[in-house]
Design a protein that fits this description.
three-stranded parallel β-sheet; 10 strands; binds glutamic acid; Rossmann fold; about 45% helix; elongated; about 10% strand
Length: about 450
């Protein structure tokens, strides 16, 4: 059997982090088995689905490298096929026309609630000849006795008693299919073998399975994954960081880091934390998905991001530090030399840009308030003296370090007398990577120019 999985978001909002994880698990499972990973946009609810949300979902998936293998299937385009299946079930006697009016249904519902029984439409067993010429829904005839067990790949065996399952509506009175029917028909027609989705859909699975059985279609393997919770254990919401996938992009996260973090959020492979996509494809399986909800932890995500930033090749880091201006070869070389040191300290790509800001131009940087406080009169005098004594160039950071050591000794000064103000003058900041490296990379001309600027 060749594996087919699908991610089936409803485009009523952006692609949130929980949806992204579901997509990732479906993608990895399909890849692991050399199968297919498909995307289905569940846009049947025209009132709630928006083109903006559809675009946002594609954008998020694209960014994460989780676009489907084929063109996406839009559920709304398949209403005719959904209706056809409802009518087949009607013909086979697995479904019936229900003429209950909304008011009658409300009354039945209230009665059922009061008695703890289930809603049974009088049309279930009515003589079709007695049917009025009125709008009707098509309901599936659910078994009244017994129970159904699903052997969920994550949740294990879960049983629901049939008296908890009402005769579900498959086709509404206006002829439109319900979500419950559309999912089943589309999964079947797309050849889906494994349904991997949030466990908020577990209850639906029992109802959906009854439609599948009535059609005598193969039942897919179900894997209902626990939803993601916030750090306080409550269901993940915006205040926990349940933002759109692309909001993480805009905050300076790398897609590789987000995917790696999401993978570990609910799935494990021993104690491994950093897992490349290739490695994840090799290792991924449904058996290692956790049964209890994982907690979203911004700090862990950030630590994962730092790791991925540090692992980027120098030319990528350099490109990420630029701000779009034309950059001279000398500045490019400077950025390449500094890139690993900046990457070492960056938690987000935005940090990388910020810490590199002083190095991407050949002019003196703006001086922050805390850096300005280091530029006392004495400090400026020392810096000016140093600038004057500088040789024309250095051949390495070490060369600069040695020269500086000797110069300080000659003046009876210590590194701490010159280091912090030099950093303030060259970078405008109080904290940066090694000032010796920075001084060397900026070069003597820039050191002189920047010291002159603070001595004006
Ligand atoms: N469209 C549903 C949702 O976004 C998912 C349906 C499914 O995966 O079966 O929650």
């Amino acid at each position: 059997m060749s594996v087919v999985t699908r991610f089936a978001p409803s485009p009523t909002g952006f692609l949130h982090i929980g949806g992204a994880r579901t997509a990732l698990f479906n993608f990895l499972f399909a890849r692991h088995h050399g199968g297919k990973y498909l995307l289905r946009v569940e846009d049947t609810d025209k009132a709630r689905s928006t083109p903006e949300a559809v675009a946002a979902i594609h954008e998020g998936l694209e960014w994460l490298g989780l676009a489907g293998d084929d063109d996406p299937l839009y559920q709304s385009s398949r209403a005719e096929r959904h209706g056809e299946v409802a009518r087949i079930l009607l013909e086979k006697g697995h479904a019936y026309r229900c003429y209950l009016t909304p008011d009658e249904l409300t009354t039945l519902r209230e009665e059922a609630r009061a008695t703890g029984g289930q809603i049974i439409s009088p049309w279930r067993d009515a003589d079709p000849a007695s049917a009025p010429d009125a709008p009707f829904t098509i309901r599936l005839r659910m078994p009244l006795e017994g129970s159904t067990t699903i052997n969920d790949a994550v949740q294990g065996a879960v049983t629901v008693s049939h008296d908890a399952l009402d005769d579900l509506v498959m086709l509404r009175a206006d002829g439109t299919p319900t979500y419950m029917l559309a999912v089943v028909v589309d999964d079947h027609d797309m050849g889906v073998t494994h349904v991997i989705r949030g466990d908020d859909h577990l209850n639906n699975a029992f109802r959906q399975q009854k439609i599948i059985e009535a059609m005598e279609w193969p039942v897919p393997v179900y894997a209902h994954i626990p939803l993601i919770h916030g750090s306080d254990g409550a269901k993940l919401s915006k205040r926990h960081g349940a933002l759109s996938a692309t909001a993480y992009r805009d905050m300076g996260f790398l897609p590789e880091a987000v995917c790696n973090y999401l993978l570990r959020l609910g799935w494990s492979h021993g104690d491994d934390e950093i897992i490349s996509r290739d490695q994840a494809i090799e290792w991924f399986g449904l058996d290692a998905i956790g049964k209890s909800p994982a907690r979203f932890d911004m700090e862990k995500l950030t630590a994962t991001n730092s790791h991925y930033i540090r692992s980027l090749p120098v030319d990528t880091l350099t490109r990420l530090m630029l701000d779009g201006d034309d950059t001279s070869a000398a500045i490019m070389t400077r950025l390449e030399q500094l890139a690993p040191a900046f990457a070492e300290r960056a938690q987000r790509l935005t940090d990388l840009k910020e810490s590199a800001a002083f190095a991407i131009h050949d002019h003196a940087p703006p001086i922050s308030e805390e850096a300005a406080a280091l530029l006392t009169d004495t400090a400026r005098e020392n810096l000016a003296a140093m600038a004057q004594d500088l040789p024309d160039d250095f051949d390495s950071p070490d060369g600069f370090k040695q020269w500086l050591g000797q110069w300080l000794e000659g003046k009876g000064l210590k590194m701490r007398d010159i280091g912090p103000p030099l950093r303030a003058a060259l970078t405008g900041m109080k904290q940066t990577p090694d000032i010796v490296l920075i001084s060397y990379c900026l070069g003597v001309e820039q050191i002189r120019l920047r010291i002159a600027a603070i001595c004006k």
